[in-house]
Amino acid sequence: MDLGIRGKKALVCGASKGLGRACAEALAMEGVQVTIVARTAADVEKAAQEINALASAAGGKVQAVACDITTPEGRAQALAACPEPDILVTNAGGPPPGDFRNWTRDDWIKALDANMLTPIELIKATVDGMIARKFGRIVNITSGAVKMPLANLGLSNGARTGLTGFVAGLARQVASHNVTINGLLPGPFETDRLTSNLASMAKTSGKPLEEVAASRRAANPSKRFGTVDEFGATCAFMCSAHAGYLVGQNVLLDGGAYPGTL
Predict the structure, then answer these.
(1) Angle subtended at Cα 162 by Cα 161 and Cα 167, rounded to the nearest 5 degrees
(2) pLDDT value at position 192?
(3) Which CA distances in Å does 255 have to 26, 80, 94, 226?
(4) Strand order in 33-38's β-sheet?
(5) What whole-number distance in Å separates Cα of residue 237 and Cα of residue 234?
(6) Other C-beta atoms within 10 Å of 68: how many?
(7) pLDDT (0 to 100) of residue 261
(8) For the residues of 171-196, what is the DSSP string, one character each?
(9) Are strands 179-186 and 136-141 parallel, antiparallel or unpaired?
(10) Which end of the chain is more exposed for a tag (fewer CB within 10 A), N or C?
(11) For 201-209, which contacts have Cβ atoms below 8 Å and span 24 or more sequence positions?
């Protein structure tokens, strides 16, 4: 399927590895001009080179920006490199797991800055241009914890759910301009983030990491963890010309782990 976005411009955050990189790669393979952002210059530049090698035949092109997207200076740098994106994929590393009794106000503010306020600031900076051009696709990578909170991820649960609530109202205000805002909610995917969470669970339970990982896989109806390619493909479709009627939704990609009907 031709997704109808060849030649569009995209800004993808947290894209040097993992889920963000998978989204950037999938978009570039559709001929999108992608700006990828991450904090570490060596990592984001390496990712850009590798994706360019894959996507050049499809007409896609990737440029790298090394900055901290959670700061005003970082956002200004990213938007200077990609001032009028047609596609925005927000993504930031989740806050650390732990016991809420140990979290300070600074811990909460840091989580809110990264996982709620930064996406909102990026949307604020780009949505009016999308409205003027009559095309925009915004995908916020949040977490399956928005629908099924995990006890040791309270910082993430709170910040990401706050973003989801904000987007629910805004998405309905801009939909008539062919601008969509949706959430993409990953469950357990084969990423560094999953490895760190499993390590935390292993430490808390006193069980070997391999045992904890095997138990988590077995508990999923799909009996496995998701692949980043699956995630990227879903993101690319949500950014496509065919997804204009997908408005204010939270697409849960978790192998069936969430047990509800809604």
Answers:
(1) 95
(2) 83
(3) 20, 38, 20, 7
(4) 61-66, 33-38, 9-12, 87-90, 136-141, 179-186, 250-253
(5) 5
(6) 17
(7) 87
(8) HHHHGGGTEEEEEEEE-SBSSHHHHH
(9) parallel
(10) C
(11) 201/152, 204/152
Tokens encoding 96 = 């650390």
What pLDDT score does 25 carry? Answer: 98
72 burial (CB, 10 Å; 0-12 / 13-18 / 19+) is exposed
User: Which residues of the chain are modeled with pLDDT < 50?
Assistant: none
| Distance, CA of 64 to CA of 62 (rounded, Å) | 7
Q: What span, in angstroms and rounded, lies between the C-alpha atoms of 136 and 154? A: 32
Residue that the structure tokens 């569009």 belong to: 8
From the list 226, 220, 230, the residue with the least C-alpha distance to 257 is 220
| Confidence at residue 194, expressed as pLDDT on a 0 to 100 scale | 84
Q: Which pLDDT belongs to residue 108? A: 96
- Determine the pLDDT at residue 238: 98
Distance, CA of 240 to chain centre? 16
Of 81, 84, 152, 67, the residue nearest 118 (C-alpha): 67
Concatenate the DSSP letters of all residues of the chain into one string: ---S-TT-EEEESS-SSHHHHHHHHHHHTTT-EEEEEES-HHHHHHHHHHHHHHHGGGT-EEEEEES-TTSHHHHHHHHHHSSS-SEEEE--PPPPP--GGG--HHHHHHHHIIIIIHHHHHHHHHHHHHHHHT-EEEEEE--GGGTS--GGGHHHHHHHHHHHHHHHHHHHHHGGGTEEEEEEEE-SBSSHHHHHHHHHHHHHHT--HHHHHHHHHHHSTTSSPBPHHHHHHHHHHHTSGGGTT--S-EEEESTT-S-S--
* pLDDT, tens digit (0-9, with 9 covering 90-100), for 162-215: 999 999 999 999 999 999 999 999 998 988 878 887 888 898 889 999 999 999
